[in-house]
Each structure stands twice: as C-alpha cells, then as structure tokens.
Amino acid sequence: TVGASHDAVKMIVGNTDFNAQAYSVYDAHKSGGLTVSHVRVGKEPIKSEYLVQEADYVACHNSTYVRKFHMLKQLKEGGTFVLNAPWKTVEELDANLPPALKHQIAEKKVKFYVIDASSVAQKVGLRQRINMVMQAVFFKLSAVLPESQATELIANNIRTRYAKKGDEVVNMNIKAMEQAGKELVEIQYPA
User: Is the pTM of this model over 0.70?
Assistant: First the structure.
C-alpha cells in the first residue's frame, strides 16, 4: 500500500499541474499489519505534513478491518468509500457490515463501491497482491487524471517497476489493472 500510494503521487505530480503528497502510517508488522496512507492532492503548493482529517476518498483493503476500525470517521459527506470484500450484494453487505458502519454510509450519503481485489489478483496469478487492483480503482474513482491517461501511466509504471521480474509479472499486473474496472461494483444501498 505504501509503495502504491507513493507511485500514485509520482504519477499525479509528474503528469498534471496538481501538487500531491503521500504520508503513510504503519505498524512494525509490515506485511499484514495496519497501514493508513494519507494522500493529498491540490492545485495549491503543499507546504506541511499532516494527516488528512476530511477525506474525499477512503479505501479499505482488508474486509476484516470494517469491524476493527472506524472506517468513515474522516470521510466527508458524499465522499467515496471503496471496500475490498467478497460481498457484492446489499444482502451480503447487510449480513457482514457492522451496524455502525452501515449507519455512517447512509448518514454521510457515501458513494459506496465494492471490489473483490483478492479474487482479481488470484485470477491473474498475483496471489494476494492487490495493490495494482486498488491503485487502478483509486484512479478510476478519484478522477484526478482522465481514466485513459491514468491507465496508460499505470501500465508504463508497471513496465518500469517490474521489468527485472520478467514479462510474466508485468503482464499479470497489467491484467490486474485492466480487470479492476470490470470487477468494481457500486452499491445502491437503502436510505
């Protein structure tokens, strides 16, 4: 997640007139531990570091976290929430999401999306490596860059970043990026 956030910032800064900053907070466990990435993007210069307090976009990459953490505490009203989970119907979500989270989703009029990024990664051969899927979803939903430009930039970044690992790894990551948009589901939840 940290690498994907920093790559996203580099792509934004290098290809737009936006300024951007990524600041990540993570525990000592690294793999499997909690990581929170705060990404700020704007036209004005970013001169200081601070954690995002009013987010337009929040993504939860691990579905078990919906029961452990307050996912939407900093999400603005009308903001976007993306959940990596195998639950794609309102009924499945109703059965698996805690009542407080469902209440916040409705109360804040959240644009709510679900993707089974783990399944996408498995299908293309990346096992549990979901970063490319979630990065593609971020660019698709945030509209920081036009989708076609973002797709091209991500693909070029994949080719550069994974070139030493061979064409197979490059192609798996590109497939994961392409599949992300097809697997993303917007949830129309009851008021």
Answer: yes
